[in-house]
């Protein structure tokens, strides 16, 4: 941004050669160049301080920069450069838009009054107002984008937190339902077996056998509940992906089958999904995205499609890490990205032996 200060010295460059060389020398003698250099001594501290200031202090620095413009303008017609900087800071003086627009109008009105008073050509003001408005709007939009990104990150984090909270509550309910009744039954039958041990050993043995059977059933139920808990990783990532892409204007759809996944498979699939969705949000410029997680034979297949710009992909840390994680579990990662035809990422991982499988061909077709 500070490179634009070079415009302050254009009068001396334009008047410093040819038949006007003496004129440029006279300007130096008259102190105009030195006044311009002196103004920089006041501008630079105010400029850097304004970046860290808020509220009234920011307004004070903005007015100080505009004041340098008004003070230097009689000696240097390109002093309106300072007003451009002031207009940029005017866009950051508060949350409401109209007070910031009012500051911009006030700054430009002051410049217009001085241009008329000094008799400068009106194109000086016309050029200034065009650039000042452009700088004001771009700074405003940049601030809005920064604020929305921060809000989106907070929303994303909140979804993850709520998903984790809901999962903890579900785990608590499941464990209570599964183990509460079962442990009560084990306690009763164990007590009964102890009472029957001397009077009726055969009945006591039956009760002990029932305790063993109930304990095994409880163990099987707990393992089933744990499998459901492990599957929540992908579910949370799907919920986060939908929020992230919907907030970015990308239509998101997904298809998911119930698969018995080991913790390692669950982690790899969740991380692959997260990395792919992040790339869609940051780079793809897509309007539609689709995710499917299904079984194809004895493999779990995760497929992420988008209709973004596609093109040649440069293998970065994200893609390399994705591939390494998938291949470490004996899987395969395929990436297709045609220019203007979107990107398709497909991860295939072998399912554990005995996991429910679906017939081949159940994968959702690519629909950019």
TrEMBL record:
<dbReference type="Pfam" id="PF07730">
    <property type="entry name" value="HisKA_3"/>
</dbReference>
<dbReference type="GO" id="GO:0016020">
    <property type="term" value="C:membrane"/>
</dbReference>
<protein>
    <submittedName>
        <fullName>Sensor histidine kinase</fullName>
    </submittedName>
</protein>
<keyword id="KW-0808">Transferase</keyword>
<feature type="domain" description="Histidine kinase/HSP90-like ATPase">
    <location>
        <begin position="264"/>
        <end position="353"/>
    </location>
</feature>
<feature type="transmembrane region" description="Helical">
    <location>
        <begin position="97"/>
        <end position="116"/>
    </location>
</feature>
<dbReference type="InterPro" id="IPR011712">
    <property type="entry name" value="Sig_transdc_His_kin_sub3_dim/P"/>
</dbReference>
<feature type="transmembrane region" description="Helical">
    <location>
        <begin position="31"/>
        <end position="51"/>
    </location>
</feature>
<dbReference type="InterPro" id="IPR036890">
    <property type="entry name" value="HATPase_C_sf"/>
</dbReference>
<keyword id="KW-0812">Transmembrane</keyword>
<dbReference type="GO" id="GO:0046983">
    <property type="term" value="F:protein dimerization activity"/>
</dbReference>
<feature type="transmembrane region" description="Helical">
    <location>
        <begin position="123"/>
        <end position="143"/>
    </location>
</feature>
<dbReference type="Pfam" id="PF02518">
    <property type="entry name" value="HATPase_c"/>
</dbReference>
<dbReference type="InterPro" id="IPR003594">
    <property type="entry name" value="HATPase_dom"/>
</dbReference>
<keyword id="KW-0472">Membrane</keyword>
<keyword id="KW-0902">Two-component regulatory system</keyword>
<keyword id="KW-1133">Transmembrane helix</keyword>
<feature type="transmembrane region" description="Helical">
    <location>
        <begin position="58"/>
        <end position="77"/>
    </location>
</feature>
<dbReference type="GO" id="GO:0000155">
    <property type="term" value="F:phosphorelay sensor kinase activity"/>
</dbReference>
<keyword id="KW-0418">Kinase</keyword>
<dbReference type="InterPro" id="IPR050482">
    <property type="entry name" value="Sensor_HK_TwoCompSys"/>
</dbReference>
